[in-house]
C-alpha cells in the first residue's frame, strides 16, 4: 500500500507546556492532530476549570492561521480538589477530564495525590457524573523497583479503586506492560488505555544497550521486549479500549543530556508517522485509523472528526534537532533516523 487516508487523528495525551514553549509545541501538534488532551502538569499546575480556560486561551493564541485545533483541557487532581470542581468540569465546554498523578511519580507531580483513599469523595463524584479519571499508573514507594511500578499500581491501587467504583470512567495512561494491557482487557467498557509511539517502537534495550540514550527516557520507563510485543498486539487488535496518546513531553536538550536527565520523549512533529511505522511493522496498517481517529473520541463521548489526512509510504528522516524556547534545542524522538511513512 503506497498511500493511506485516515480521518484526522486526535492525541489523547499531550504535554504542550506553557509560555515560549507553546511556539514550538502547538504548531507541531496541530499540524498532525485535530484535538489533544492537554496535560495539566504545568508549574503551578492547572487545578480549576477557570485556570484551564485561561491555559486554553494561551494555547489557542499559538495555533497557526488556517489550522483547526481544538485543545481539550484536563484538571490536575490534588489532595485539595473538591467534589464541586467535578460538577464544573461536567458543565464546561472545554474541560473533559481530571488527571491523577501519584505525588512524586513523574515530571511536575509534586502536587499530586498523596493517598488515593483520601480523595474517594471526589472520585465518587467523578463516577456519578461520568467524568473521566486519567491515571498515571505507577506507585512511587522508594523500595519498589522502577520496572515494577506499573504492575504494583494495578494490584495495590487500581483493583481496589475499581472494586469501590465499578462504573468509574477511567483511562490508564501510557501503558507499558503486558500486565496493564491484560488488566484493561479484563475490565468493562468504562476502562481504556492510551499507548505512546515510543512504547510501541522501542524497548529498554534501545535505551540502555551500547550506551545510555537519554532521549528514550520517559515515564513509565521503557520495558523489556515481551511487553513491547503485547502492546503492539493490543494496539493493532481493533479493540476500542486502546487508543492513541503520544505523551509527547518536551524537555530541552540540556535538560535531557544531563547528569539528572528529565523524563519525557518529544514525538509531536512526526507522531502519526511513528505510529504508522509501528503498525506497518506488524502488518496492521489497516488498524491504524480506529486506534488513532475513532476509539478515543468514542470513549470521551466526542464526535469523530470528519476531515482526513493522507500518509504516503515514503522515507523521511526525523530532524536531528529543533529550536525550542529562547535559543535552546529539543531532540525529537528517533532523531536523525529514517522512517517509512510521511504525512503529506
Ligand atoms: C511527562 C512530562 O515530562 O511532563 N514525562 C514523561 O516521561 N512521560 C510526564 C508524564 O506523563 O509522566
Ligand atoms: Zn504524560
What does this structure look like?
This protein has 344 residues and is an alpha/beta fold. Helix content is 33%, strand content 17%. The protein has helices spanning 21-30, 49-60, 83-91, 120-129, 149-164, 178-186, 197-201, 204-208, 225-235, 253-256, 271-281, 288-300; strands at 3-7, 11-14, 35-38, 70-76, 95-100, 133-135, 170-172, 191-195, 242-244, 308-312, 316-317, 322-324, 328-330, 338-339, 342-343. The strands form 4 sheets. It has an 8-stranded parallel beta sheet with strand order 2-3-4-5-6-7-8-9. Strands 1-10-15 form a 3-stranded antiparallel beta sheet, covered by helices on one side. The chain has a two-stranded antiparallel ribbon with strand order 11-14. Helix 3 (83-91) runs parallel beside helix 4. The longest helix has 16 residues, at 149-164. The two termini are 15 Å apart. The mean pLDDT is 97. N-carbamoyl-L-aspartate (NCD) binds next to loops.
Concise overview:
With about 350 residues, this protein is of the alpha/beta class. The chain is built from twelve helices and 15 strands. N-carbamoyl-L-aspartate (NCD) binds next to loops.
Number of β-strand runs? 15
Alpha-carbon distance between the two ends: 15 Å
Read across the widest sheet, the strand sequence of neighbours is 2-3-4-5-6-7-8-9
* Low-confidence region ranges: none
What is the CATH topology assignment?
TIM Barrel
Ligand list: N-carbamoyl-L-aspartate, zinc ion
Helix content: 25-40%
CATH homologous superfamily title = Metal-dependent hydrolases
* Total of DSSP H or I helical runs spanning 4+ residues: 12
Question: What is the mean pLDDT?
Answer: 97
CATH architecture: Alpha-Beta Barrel
**CATH C-level class:** Alpha Beta
Spatial extent as radius of gyration: 19 Å
**Element order, helices and strands?**
EEHEHEHEHEHEHEHHHEHHHEEEEEE
Task: Domain count, please report it.
Answer: 1
Q: Looking at the structure, what is the overall shape?
A: globular
Strand content: 15-25%
Structural class: alpha/beta
Query: What profile does the largest beta sheet have?
Result: 8 strands, parallel
Amino acid at each position: 500500500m503506497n498511500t493511506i487516508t485516515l480521518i484526522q487523528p486526535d492525541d489523547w495525551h499531550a504535554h504542550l507546556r506553557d509560555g515560549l514553549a507553546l511556539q514550538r509545541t502547538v504548531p507541531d501538534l496541530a499540524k498532525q492532530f485535530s484535538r489533544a488532551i492537554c496535560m495539566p502538569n504545568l508549574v503551578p499546575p492547572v487545578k480549576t476549570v477557570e485556570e484551564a480556560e485561561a491555559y486554553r486561551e494561551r494555547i489557542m493564541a499559538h495555533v497557526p492561521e488556517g489550522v483547526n485545533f481544538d485543545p481539550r483541557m484536563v484538571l490536575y487532581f490534588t489532595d485539595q480538589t473538591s467534589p464541586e470542581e467535578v460538577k464544573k468540569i461536567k458543565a464546561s465546554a472545554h474541560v473533559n477530564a481530571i488527571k491523577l498523578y501519584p505525588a512524586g511519580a513523574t515530571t511536575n507531580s509534586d502536587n499530586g495525590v498523596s493517598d488515593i483513599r483520601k480523595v474517594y469523595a471526589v472520585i465518587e463524584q467523578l463516577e456519578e457524573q461520568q467524568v473521566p479519571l486519567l491515571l498515571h499508573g505507577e506507585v512511587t514507594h522508594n523500595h519498589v523497583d522502577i520496572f515494577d511500578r506499573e504492575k504494583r499500581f494495578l494490584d495495590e491501587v487500581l483493583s481496589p479503586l475499581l472494586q469501590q467504583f465499578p462504573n468509574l470512567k477511567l483511562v490508564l495512561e501510557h501503558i507499558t506492560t503486558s500486565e496493564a494491557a491484560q488488566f484493561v482487557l479484563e475490565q468493562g467498557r468504562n476502562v481504556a488505555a492510551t499507548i505512546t509511539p515510543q512504547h510501541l517502537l522501542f524497548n529498554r534495550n534501545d535505551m540502555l544497550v551500547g550506551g545510555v540514550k537519554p532521549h528514550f527516557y520517559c515515564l513509565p520507563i521503557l520495558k523489556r521486549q515481551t511487553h513491547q510485543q503485547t502492546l503492539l498486539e493490543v494496539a493493532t487488535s481493533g479493540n476500542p479500549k486502546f487508543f492513541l496518546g503520544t505523551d509527547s513531553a518536551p524537555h530541552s536538550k540540556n535538560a535531557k543530556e544531563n547528569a539528572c536527565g528529565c523524563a519525557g520523549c518529544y514525538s509531536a512533529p512526526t507522531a502519526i508517522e511513528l505510529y504508522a511505522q509501528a503498525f506497518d511493522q506488524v502488518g496492521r496498517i489497516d488498524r491504524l485509523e480506529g486506534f488513532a481517529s475513532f476509539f478515543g473520541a468514542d470513549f470521551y463521548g466526542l464526535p469523530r472528526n470528519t476531515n482526513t489526512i493522507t500518509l504516503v509510504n515514503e522515507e523521511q528522516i526525523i530532524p536531528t534537532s529543533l529550536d525550542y524556547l529562547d535559543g535552546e534545542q529539543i531532540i525529537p524522538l528517533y532523531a536523525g533516523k529514517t522512517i517509512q511513512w510521511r504525512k503529506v
